[in-house]
Amino acid sequence: MANTILLFSLCTVVLMVTASPNDCGGNRYAPACIEPQLVATTADIDDLPNHPEKLLIDVREPSELAATGKIPTSINIPLKTVRAELSLSSEAFEKKYGRKKPTTDDPIIFSCRSGVRAGQAALEADQLGYKKITSDLVGDEFETGIPYACRSVKTMSIATYEEVLDLPNHPEKLLIDVRNPDELAETGKIPTSINIPLPQLEQGLKLADDAFKATYGRDKPSTGTELIFHCKMGGRAQKATDLASSLGFSNARNYKGSWTEWAAKQGK
Q1: Residue 263 has pLDDT above 60, yes or no
Q2: How many other C-beta atoms are found inside a 10 Å radius of the C-beta of residue 141?
Q3: C-alpha dist (Å) from residue 79 to 39, 82, 238
Q4: Is residue 250 part of a domain?
Q5: What was the pLDDT predicted at 202?
Q6: N or C: which end of the chain has fewer CB within 10 A?
């Protein structure tokens, strides 16, 4: 049986473009790589109390749950322990979590903050033989005590080729190439983009306004500026998006097509 991959959003349903396996670093459950038709809805999560056979696993750290609360019916298994915990015996799992251990044919839903860790957990479960896996793309932020009421709408959507092509008409948007300088020297760059290699991104986004402009020749983006990250294939751009979001940039997303798609469509 083919694995069933779904996404759900407590705030909004986001359709994603489909990427080839090579674009996903071997993880077809990565947020940017889930197929558009495999999207679960908030209604599915609301209905979980009526489906005890479905297990919702929050893979965030306990400190994150303490700060935000948790989705009802979920259990907490931090990402770094997912493989070990799903390998427990049925008796040990039920004793530890108070829930029956899922069989490889039972549905499992993974949830985190932004979707990246949920995708990694889904890959771990897939490798263990679980056949019905669901991954939360947009996250589980909700007001403690008010299940499913979104604190903020987080849109980890993917910028399209057409949007990137239109960027010269939108100077308020900032396209950041997170490849290394030697890669740009070899291939060139997308017009309007600035280059901040991924290892330097956190430091760059924390620069003072004047230092940022002096370094990159553009005004420093505010936390509300629409940031679009790209790289060669998409993996580093996804990491950059997640990093920017963790620093408070609420409109960070990535251009899934990246340089590879851009160059192909430009005939380069």
Answers
A1: yes
A2: 17
A3: 22, 5, 18
A4: yes
A5: 94
A6: N
Q: What is the longest distance spanned by two Cα atoms in the chain?
A: 61
Rg (Cα) of the chain, in Å, rounded? 20
pLDDT tier at 95, thresholds 50, 70, 90: very high
**C-alpha distances out from residue 268 to 163, 185, 234, Å:** 19, 14, 18
SS3 string of 131-198? CEEEEECCCCCCCCCCCCCCCCCCCCCEECHHHHHCHHHCCCCEEEECCCHHHHHHHCCCCCCEECCH
Please name the amino acid found at residue 241. Answer: T
- Residue 33's pLDDT band (cuts 50, 70, 90): low
Indicate if the pLDDT at residue 230 is higher than 50. yes
- Domain of 110 in residue numbering reads as 36-136
The tens digit of pLDDT for each residue in 127-147 reads: 898 877 765 544 433 332 322
Verify that 185 and 258 share a domain, yes or no: yes
**Is 24 part of the annotated catalytic residue set?**
no
Per-residue model confidence as pLDDT tens digits over 151-182: 222 334 577 788 888 889 999 999 999 999 99
List Cβ neighbours of 113 (8 Å cut-off, separation of 6 or more). Answer: 60, 64, 139, 140, 141
Residue of 24, 112, 150, 231 marked catalytic? 231
